[in-house]
Each structure stands twice: as structure tokens, then as C-alpha cells.
Automatic annotation (TrEMBL):
Pfam family, one: CN_hydrolase
One MF term in the entry's GO annotations: hydrolase activity, acting on carbon-nitrogen (but not peptide) bonds, in linear amides
Family annotation (SUPFAM superfamilies): Carbon-nitrogen hydrolase
Domain of life: Eukaryota
Signal sequence segment: none
Keywords, alphabetical: Hydrolase
Record-annotated CN hydrolase domain positions: 6-256
Record protein name field: CN hydrolase domain-containing protein
Amino acid sequence: MAAPPLRVGVAQMTSTNDLEANYNTCSRLVKEAAAAGVNLLCLPESFSFVAAKDGESLKIAQPLDGPIMQRYSSLARESNIWLSLGGFQEKGPDDSHLYNTHVLLDSSGNIRKTYRKIHLFDVDVPGSMVYKESDSTAAGESIVVAESPVGLLGLTVCYDLRFPELYQQLRFQHHAQILLVPSAFTKVTGEAHWEILLRARAIETQCYVVAAAQAGRHGEKRESYGDSLIIDPWGVVIARLPDRLATGVAVADIDLSRIDSVRRRMPIAQHQRIGSCLKTQSV
């Protein structure tokens, strides 16, 4: 008898500053994924809360053993599914800062790993808003990988996507097979760079990339691009929602032999030379 598929789901939603409404949406998506045989469902950055006003996120931030995360742990347990919760407002090191934390729950509702976002979004987006994530968010300091039923996961969050060194380390030093990129990309940056960057990370690491995205308008000031994707190690998009802005789940089966085949035929891990034997010439 053939082994059951290693099935991954990527969820898309439009979170607001209503914790209850967001939970209800997540609950529906989790149950939909579980019914489809998904082993690991990935929810986007800020799945539980998107602030409408400055300071709101700090007010609702909680520790990882607080009631918000306990509720999502119960959801994972009741649905018998692993959950990647990308971008939870974890209570931070002081009253002025939180952590933007990617939480991995197993099917018993236990926290397996947490990753605090390293690269903070402090930018002036052309034609859009000025963002200063570091005003209220403390940066993480650790690279995180996690074993799961579908393979070895590399945990990241959103703006991390623009820093390929992180993904290179996840693959070549920590042996990740699947890279998780929960996000809330702006509409402007998403239109320009979202799919290109995701496919580049897949191609250069020879990993699957699973990118759950926020979509649409969260309020008067904030809008996310959407277009949740699953990409294979050759850079091929193998799942996406038909509607870039829709709430829903897209599903794909992970084939670990596909990773092995791509890496064997193009053994870039054996060909790397930068950082080892090359010398730098002075100008």
C-alpha cells in the first residue's frame, strides 16, 4: 500500500482588529484543511490580529501561554492538524515592544517551535505608507528549523523574504526542506516583488516554499497583496488560490523525493565556494 501523501495547505484571509472574528475565520479554514487531509496548514502573518490604530497590537499582545494561543492550540488538537501560525503578537521584552512570532503547533496543540522575526519592516513604500515596525517590535536573534510530519521546516516571516542569506543558512547549514514564509505584503510591494522573490528563494535553496498571505483591506490605512502560494524546489508554482484576494485554502502534496532529485541533478551544495576558499582583492 502506498504511503499517504504529505499534504500542506496555505491559508489566506483578511484579518482585522477583531480577535473573535479572526479566530472564527481561522477555525473555518482549519476545519476545511483538515477535511481535505492536510497535515500542516500555514496561516499568514498577523492571523489573529491586525491593528487599526497605533498601539493596538501592544495592548493585545500576550505570552505564548496566554488565552489567545491556548485557543489556537485547542483548535489544532480538536482538528488533529499541525498549524503554522505566522506572526503572532507575543508579549515582548518591555512595555513598548512585542515580538512578531511564528508559532508552530503540532496536532496535539503543543508548541513545537517559535521563531521571532529577525528583519523588521522599517521602510517608506513608494506610493504607499511609511512603516516603522521597530517602533513597537523587538527583533529576534535566532534561526529556527523544526521537524514536522511533512519534512524539515525553516521558519521565517514576511520581510525576511528580502534577505536571501537567512534562507541560504536554513538550507545549507540547517538542512531545511520546506521554507515557510507567512506574510502581509503591501499591495505595492506585492505587485512588484512577491512571486519573484518566493520563486527565487525556492530555486536557490532547492526547497519547497509555502507562503500564506494576508489579502485585501484591513481597514482605512492598510491593504495586503494576497496571492498565497506553494512552490516546488524547481521554482514551479504548484498551488495558489484562484482569486488573489479571496479567503480560502490552497493545497499541494509535498514529494520529498522531488527535493532529492533536484538537488542530485544540480548539486549546488557541493559547488559553493563563496565564504570558503575565495580571496578578496583590494581596490
